[in-house]
Every structure is written in C-alpha cells, then in structure tokens.
Amino acid sequence: MDRLSAGKRRAALFWPPSPETGLLVVTAAALAAGGVCRLVGAPAPAELLWGLGTAAAVVPAVGWVLAALRRGHAGVDLIAVLALAGTLAVREYLAGVLIALMLATGRTLETAARRRAFHDLRALLERAPHTARLLTADGARTVPSAEVAVGDLLVVGPGEVVPVDGRVAGTVAVLDESALTGESLEVRRVQGESVRSGGVNAGGAFELRATASERDSTYAGMVRLAREAGAESAPVVRLADRYAAWFLPLSLLAAGTAWLISGSAVRAVAVLVVATPCPLLLAAPVAVVSGLSRAARLGVVIRDGGALENLGRARTLLLDKTGTLTVGRPRVLDVAAAPGWQPVQVLRLAASLDQYSPHVLAQSLVEAARRRGLRLSTPTDMHEEPGHGAAGTIAGRRMAVGRLADGIDQPAWARSADNRALLDGASVAWLTLDGAPVGAVLLRDPPRADAPRTLRRLRAAGIDRLVMLTGDRREPAREVAAVLGLDDVCAGLTPADKVAAVRAERERAVTVMVGDGVNDAPALAAADIGVAMGARGATASSEAADVVLTTDRVDRLADAVTIAVRARRIAVQSALGGMALSLAAMAAAAFGLLPPAAGALLQEGIDVAVILNALRVLRDPRDGRPALSPAAEALIHRFAAEHDDLRDVLDAVRDAADSLSDAAGPESLAPVAEVHRLLTERLLPHEYAEEHQLYPALAPTLGGPESTATMSRAHAEIERLAGRIAVHLAPAGPDGRPAPEQLDDLRACLYGLHTVLRLHFTQEEENYFSLAP
Fold it and tell me: Which residues are catalytic?
C-alpha cells in the first residue's frame, strides 16, 4: 500500500517556524516593550521601539505584495505597505506597529490554514494491513500484502484485518466492517460472497480468494481518496482581501486628488494615515479569534479562521448516521416472550448467557438487564459460536441466545416479533430452550436524544438542506430520517459513494460533512467543512476534519454553526463600519480639516471601536447552550435514570392490553391490576415529581413556565388515563367477567396510555434531558 515516508510524517507533525511567525514575535515584542517604556516615563525609547517594529514589517510586507502581484491580484497587504510608509512618514509609530502586528497575525493565521492539506492520515495508514497469510501446497506462509496477486488463496485469522478484496472460499466469515461502513453490527459472508479489505475478522479463521491486488483494494482507495480530497480543499481567501479590492483604489484616488487640488503633500499623507486599513486588518482576525475561543470553551475545536468563515456561510449539512445522528451502539428496543413467559424473564436469561461475550449485541443485552436491576444467573457448560451466539446451561436447562438455526418453524408470536424487527429496522437476539424459541430481544441503534433539537437549531442558524449519508440499509436509515425530519437520505454508500455525494452537494452550496469513523475521513476532507465527532478517538476522521467535537454531543455542532454565523456577521459589520468611518475621515483630511497627527489619533479611535465591536463575539450568551444551574443538572440526571427504570412499566401496560381478549374472564384483569399497581406506586409519583420539581427548575433556562406547558398537559392526560383504568377495575358482571364495552374502553385506555407515555418520555429526553452533559 502507498505509504508516507517517515520524513514526510515528521514534516507534517513538526512544521518549522515560518517567517510570518517570526514577524509576529518581533512586532508583538516591539509593541509590548514600547508600552513598558511609555508607562515608566521614557517616550523616546518607546517611539524608537515602535518605529523599529514598524520598519521590520515593511520588507516582508513588500515581498508579500510583489508575490501577490505576480499572481495577478493586490490584496490588503498593499494597503498595509502604504499605511506603514505613511505612519513612518508622519512619525505615528504606535499606529505603525499596530498595523505591523495585525498584518503579521493575519499572515500567520493564513499560513496555519494552508497546513491543512498536509494531514498525514496516521490512523488510516497505521491500521492498513502490511502482511497476508498465503496458502500454498506447503502450508500457510506470511508475505507482504503488496505481493498478493489476484487469484491467491489467503487465510484470515480471528481479529486480523482483511488485507485485500476477495471472496469467501471456505467457511462462513463473520466481519466487523465498521471501518468501512461506520455500522456497528457485524455482517456474515457465506462462501462466494465478496469481502472488502479493511474489515476485521470477528469470527473464526476463514479462507479468502483474492480478487484484487492491495493497490486496487478498497482500503488503499480510502487512503487515496482522503489525500486527493484534502488537496482540493484550499483555505478561503481572507475576508479583508475582498473588501480591499475596492478600498485600495478608492484610498489612492482620494489621496491623489487631495494632493492635486491642494498642491499639499501633507494632505495626501493625512488621507493615507486615516485610510490605514486597521479596520480591515483588525476586524476579521479579532472576530475570528473570538469565535474560535468561544467555540473551544464548548468543546468545539475549529482548526483555522477560514474554517470558521466557511462554517458561517454553509447552507447544506451532510451527516453520517451511526455514531453521529444515532448513539452508535445497539440498545434494547423491545422484548417479546412466548406464551407463559415474561419479557423480564427473557431479558434476564438472555443477558445471563451473554454476560461473558465480547459481542456488541451481547454487551447491549447485559447493560439493559443491569439498568433494570435484574439479577443475572451464572451459566455452566458455556459455548460461543462466532456469528451464531452463546449457549449454556441454566437451572439444568439448555439455553442459547443469538441467531435461530435454519429450518426452525416459528410460532405466531415469533413471526410477529420478526415482523416488528423488520418494520423497526432492528436486529433480533433469540432466546431458545432446548432448541425452541421462547423469547426475542429486539435491538436497534436509536437516534441521539439531542439530535432533533440540534437539527432544529441548525435550520434556525441558516442551514436549509439536511441530508443523511450512510452505509447502513435503506429501511433503518429512512426511519431515522423520518423521525428527525431530514430532507433526503442516501443509504448503502461506500466511502467512494460518500465522496461523490459530497462533491455533488458542493456544486450547489457551501457544504458541511459530519462523521465519526475512519470510513468518513475521505468525505470529511472532500467537503467545504468537515466535522468529526472526535470524542470516541476516531483519529483519521479528526485529522481530515476542519472542526472536531471533543465531547460526544452532536448539539455542539449547532453551537459551532451559531458561533460561526455570528462571528462572520460581526467581522463583516466591523470591517464595513470601520471603513465607513475611515472614508468619512478621508473626506475630512482631503479638505484640510484633519491634519496627519489628529488623523492618526482618530484612526486609533476607529481601531479601538472596531476591536470592541469584534469582541462582542465572546460576550454574547446566545451562542452557547442554555445555562443550567447545578441543581437543575442534578434533577435532569435523576429523572433520566428514572426513565430507564420505568421502561418495564411501559412494557407492562402494552402487554396488559395485548392480553385482553373478547372472551376475557376475571383472570384477564390480573395483568391490568398489576399495571394499576405499577402506575400508582412508581409512574404517577415520578410524573408528579417532574411537574413540581424538574419543570420549575428548568423554566428560567427555557424561557419561563409556558415553555413546559405542553409537557404539563401530557402529565394531566397520563393521570386521566390511569384514573380511568382504576375505574374499570372496580365493577364486573355477575359471573366476574368484564362487560364487552368495558373491555373495549379498557383496551383503548391501555394502548392510549402506552402511546402517550412513549411520546412523552421521548419529548422529555429530547428537549430537556439532552440539555445536561
């Protein structure tokens, strides 16, 4: 595989100091030393130091102007050279050294932005397979993966990375392809099916017939895509340069006209002094640095000012699904049980069998059982078959959890569970007893609780197109998109497909791509702005990105966009406002109303005003997340934990409704009575505490009591339905059977209560619980 040399890696990591950095140090030191001299009553040394700082900037500034002219454009640096010469001519050295410092700062930021094209993609390269095990007549031998040819027979051991693209030649292959697709669920490939390089063998050893050389395989292509896409993404032209295109000729015209009409060179110098482009040089850097600083406080690292400006102009947002819009790990969605079995019993036994398995679904089962306080048993005679599941003996009965063996007839309840999994895009872990299914645990990677609120905030900030790009199947992708209100979905994509989709969107608008995995690195680099969810250590995606969210919260993306939009608006406002004041001062100087010394002082006042205005980016409280008191955060965590504990109550409500039949006898009301007990003892006290403790604590943050009014209305409906269920439990007919009309209304109450509770829980988790870290 094509690799960077060690020298290039070191060059990318340890970039030598640039001339711009040296000038920044010199001018900053001159300004500071002169300030100290002025404070201690030594004005002459202060003027000398400031003059030397100004003069130090002239030579490199002239060089930058000549280089720009050779490229065919004259930017703000030409105005700066004229301004530096003007300040030296009228001996306004303090203004000159300030101009020199701002010039050096802008150039240093631009140089740092150019380094973005030299990301070394260490994670992609270090993960790449360097060897392969080749099967020959004499047995297996290890060879460099670059020597593998099409048609070679390889063996891939457990935990090894697939070295080249190929087809399964022997036993079934169980693969973790998260590095390629971003999806956390493992996949099975039977004999003859294709396998891509870069996947990890999550099962037993299998044979692979190579269908491509290493250079032409999937993983090598990912590295090349990231490099090519990164080379396309050049830093944006500085904001000041765009305004300088017309401000420069206007300044020269005003100075020349004043000299021509008055015959006084002093007037021309005065015009140049007040035309000093400090508003241009100061506004953008100060606003941008303020935006970068504010974003960093919220756990958002923005690599350079160009990225911040582009983020403020973005109109299209592309998002990966797994780990970005969703949690990134499967969670228990529902538990189905055979007649005579309870869902809690199924979950406890399944988790008991899976508690020693490293499989991602097994870990989710165990976590769900522990969250519900279930006591796990210790199985004996354990055996785990990769790709099929775990089996063991509990209480003298042989049980297994995982896939159903082929050829097993599914009873009606099992077919219903399978259909539910298909509709919800979920995976199924079957619990079997002596080979027969007795329960099913449905698992799905759910949307992040903060995702809906984040997308609403992004639309409010100016993003008008939201699209999901995912390697997952179309059905679960479309369901997540429908819940979140996305504009479009592109599913089943390879890394190359994602890059093509990003490039297509870039043709229409400034585009942001958000992802969290190694497989997203090429798409992040191809976008105008790449945003990496870096909290989980996805190094390759972080290094290919312009923005890194260091906390595992997607709502920080909305914070970043809001900050970028505001910083850009204030930068433009400051630059235009400063230039308007400079134009007015230029007119006064041209008519002789403003001598050079007074003009220099006025220009300094304009500069101070520009800086103060740009610093508003730091102070605006609307850029950050809503401020929560420590007590409110503690309440959010408490009630979020109670939601997890109350999941079994929601299941009991639905199961009680399912158990009611038209021929129901007195025994059919027993589950309903149990539901009423759970509602009275657990659920209603929880809702009462939310109403009287949580909501008042959140009201100041959310904008007053009216902000929680809809949730309070849901509490009232929950209490009404619970009271109606209690009324139905009191009367019964002469034979102890409920009346038919009573059954209809009782079923409606139970199903309605289950629906209201699920919606209410989801709304609270999205709107309230996601506020706390």
Answer: 320
